[in-house]
Amino acid sequence: MKAKKKFLVSLVLSLILILGSIPVFTSSVLAKGVTITILAGGGPHLLSPRRAAEIYEKETGNKVVIVESPHKDLYAKALTDLISGGRSYDAFQFLYTQLATFVAGGFLRPIDDYIQKYNAESLFEDIIPSMREMYTRWGGKTYAFVYDGDVHSYYYRKDLFNDPEIKAEFKKRFGYELRPPATWEEYRDISKFFYETDYVKYGDSELAQRGRMYLWWANRFFGYGGEWFDEEGRPAINSEAGINALNNFKECIKYCPPGVLNFEFSEHQEAWLTGSIPHFVQWGDAWLDGQLSPASKVKDKIGIKLPPNDVVCLATGWAYAIPKDAKHPEEAFQFLKIMTFGENSVWAVTQPGSGVQPYLRKTHFENSKVIEALGKEFLEGYMQCIAKGKTDLRIPYAAEFVDNLDMYLSKALAGEMGTKEALDAAAKKWVELLERYFGSSTLPVKFRPMLRVPE
Amino acid sequence: MVKEKHLPWILLVPVFVLLLAVTIYPFVYGIYLSLSNYSIITGISFRGIGNYLDLFRDSRFLHSLKVTFIFVFSAVGAEFLVGLGIALLLNRQFWQKRIFVSLIYIPMIMAPIAVALMWRMLYNADYGPINYFLLLSRLTSRKIAWLSESQYALLSLIMVDVWQWSPFIFLVLYAGLQSVPPELVEAAQIDGASRWKIFRYLVLPFLSPFIVLAFLFRIMDAFKIFDSVAVLTKGGPGTSTEVVSWLSYLTGFTYFRLGYAAAMSIVLFALIMLLSQVLLKRIKQQ
User: Fold this and answer.
1) Which residue pairs from B253-257 have beta carbons closer than 8 angstroms and sit at least 24 positions apart in sequence?
2) What rounded mean pLDDT belongs to chain B?
3) Nearest to residue B3, comparing CAs of A416, A292, A5?
């Protein structure tokens, strides 16, 4: 009998020990007032949330806990928590292309009531209308704050492109003037020229590691007139535009540094900052770090322009949203308002290494501090790219669609498959995904407008 | 007073509760998930063995299984040869032997992520030391892109694994070599047995259970390779390094097809169990 009693006591004590250990990890953050927890991308992207947290804590007496995550894991971490009902985060960072999935799953809290309550209408109206629609709204409701307004641009070395000796040699070889390329064929020619001469180490760089290399293909794809789906909603990635884009991508890879098929952001950016390449396509970091970073070898030599064929992919781009079941949604709203608007946003945009570009905010492009730090040339070039941008794949389950596309593109670049074979296989996979998720081999009509940048 | 016969059970309770919470429950839930269809938007529904049937029709999964097997058997095979070689080499007395033995352990005690990051630099095609020395010694005439050429990417992952885990095989086999009675070796030498015959007919039988044990641990561990794939290749280029654990991660945490990902993990688990049982049976026989 006694043994049984002891057994039960041990069982209860064990459970207390296990359950009791859980709050140990969180008790240190429980102070007076409300504590909000924010899931944020790591590295440079933490600068702005950290600074905003200080301001918010001073203003409200509440606490902010910032949970850091590698960017590639943000989606998985947020979604796992939302699915399991963990309610760990009061706000989280995500890609604008993922908004559709989060909303379709019913995971987000609309914030229109808070916008009204806190008179934030004018702040949201300050965001470029088309981008406001894409980053923050779905189905007529507002769900998110714009954090990092990303777009690809073409960056080139003005010192090389304006050098009379180089210009003459280029013209002699290709029969036309050396200038920022008007077509992807010209882009290839310039890459080839610099690769085969000694003015710089290599001719080009591409972000070609599996994961998000499809974006570098997408710039070409749009340049050749491609669309994600045709008018009937069938996948159109294996169209002639897709094939031309992949062939051009493959050719340009030859003029990149060795190992380029394993280049992610840091290697790609390093090739530029070390002055090893004459041009490339990249996010705004190419200008920000190129101009403001002490280690840059391209300071005051950078030109910015729309990529060839004057069209570009609105690649990635970050936003913040509040989960439907957040413990402190109103406090999270107040925090995000401080972080993504006003003085803090200007500070972040002008901070070297913050990893954020102008938040698609009209006032950012007119703000004297921003103009002084970044220069009119960059802001004008950046604005042009936003205006001519085409949307990244913005449909529910986009992550699976693009990852499969990315895998087949990678197979083609690695020589495991032919160009057409790879794109046909990717399109076939997309049809399979459409059937699985939407019950039809075509994209449902209601999602088709999401693939156009709103007016 | 607690009866003595009850005491072991009482002492086991905390461990049992912990096991239940962190191992048994997740495992059972994993099996349940593998029999379900999970969609972010529509939620969870029972699917029976549908996921398993799909797996064996899924060419991407079958390819990843092939890549995993190539990785496991190449890496563990090479680790055995290197580990055994070093163990035999150090199985004699020489000056400061302990320092050498300690140095050999270092890779094994390093965090896998740190190891992968270190090798990422070593493999760098442009300024990595491996290419530098290969070019210097004229063993190659071009910079090899170790991690981005399909024919080298898997080999590169195998080399990292061999570097990190050969010391483990060494450790086990070195311990095994200590169990060989020296008088038997001396007797064989006096009788004129060659080195190979001493190794083959005397040392190897003593070493045999240790070899099986080392294989068992390493095979179980190598099947779970993830860190170096995540840091070095992300399954690429193409699908040349896409092992099952990486595909399962993508399926679970990028596509959020949790049921299908769970089925992949269960298949991998079953394969590891099967191989383990074969090796354990071998140990028992010996």
Assistant:
1) B253/A73, B253/A75, B253/A76, B253/A80, B254/A75, B254/A76, B254/A399, B254/A400, B254/A403, B255/A397, B255/A399, B255/A400, B255/A403, B256/A79, B256/A83, B256/A399, B256/B38, B256/B39, B256/B40, B257/A400, B257/B38, B257/B39
2) 92
3) A5
Q: Is B66 helix (H, G, I), strand (E, B) or coil?
A: helix
Q: How far is CA B92 from CA B98, B165, B177, in A?
A: 11, 22, 10
Residue A95 DSSP code: E
C-alpha B170/C-alpha A378 separation (Å) is 58
Cβ contacts of B147 on chain A, cutoff 8 Å: 259, 262
User: Contact B9/A7, CB-based, under 8 Å?
Assistant: yes
Asked whether this complex has an ipTM greater than 0.90, the answer is no
Identify all chain A residues contacting B236, using CB atoms and an 8 Å cutoff.
209-210, 261-262, 407, 410, 414
Quote the CA–CA distance of B286 and B278 in Å, as a whole number.
13
Across the interface, of B17, B145, B239, the residue whose CB is closest to A411 is B239
- Binned at pLDDT 50, 70 and 90, residue B3 comes out as confident
pLDDT band of residue A3 (cuts 50, 70, 90) is: low
Residue B17 lies in a domain: no
Q: Whole domain around residue B66: which residue ranges?
A: 35-285
Q: Test A416 with B239 for CB contact under 8 angstroms.
A: yes
Give me A277's structure tokens: 């390449």
Residues of A in contact with B237 (CB under 8 A): 210, 261-262, 410-411, 413-414, 416
Which is nearest to A287 in space by CA: A374, A183, A361, A199?
A374
How many domains would you assign to chain B?
A: 1
Q: What is the CATH number of the domain that holds B108?
A: 1.10.3720.10
Query: Does residue B5 form part of some domain?
Result: no
pLDDT tens digit sequence for B220-249: 999 999 999 999 999 989 999 999 999 999
> Residue A9's closest chain B neighbor by CA?
B10
Interface membership of A210 toward B (CB under 8 Å): yes
* pLDDT given at position A18: 46
Query: Does B148 sit within 8 Å of A414, measured CB to CB?
Result: yes
Q: Which amino acid is present at B68?
A: T
Q: Determine the distance in angstroms separating the CA of A339 from the nearest CA of chain B, rounded to an integer.
A: 28
Question: How confident is the model over B131-144, as pLDDT tens digits?
Answer: 999 999 999 999 99
* Nearest residue in A to B58, CA atom: A429
Check pLDDT > 70 for residue B2: no
Percent of chain A exceeding pLDDT 90 equals 73
> Between β-strands A153-157 and A302-305, what pairing exists: parallel, antiparallel or unpaired?
antiparallel
What residue has token string 């688990």? B269
pLDDT at position B224, please? 92
Decide: A43 and A264 in contact? Cβ < 8 Å. Answer: no
| B16 assigned to some structural domain | no
Q: What does the pLDDT read at residue A32?
A: 52
Q: Residue A144, Cβ neighbours under 10 Å: how many? A: 27
For residues B123 and A388, give the distance between their C-alpha atoms in angstroms, rounded to a whole number: 39
Task: Kindly report which listed range (A1-15, A300-314, A418-432) carries the lowest average pLDDT score.
Answer: A1-15
In a domain, B75, yes or no: yes
Size of interface A-B (CB pairs under 8 A): 128
pLDDT in tens, A225-269: 999 999 999 999 999 999 999 999 999 999 999 999 999 998 999
User: Tens of pLDDT along B155-214?
Assistant: 999 999 999 999 999 999 999 999 899 899 999 999 999 999 999 999 999 999 999 999
Q: Which two tokens stand for residue B85?
A: 């070689």
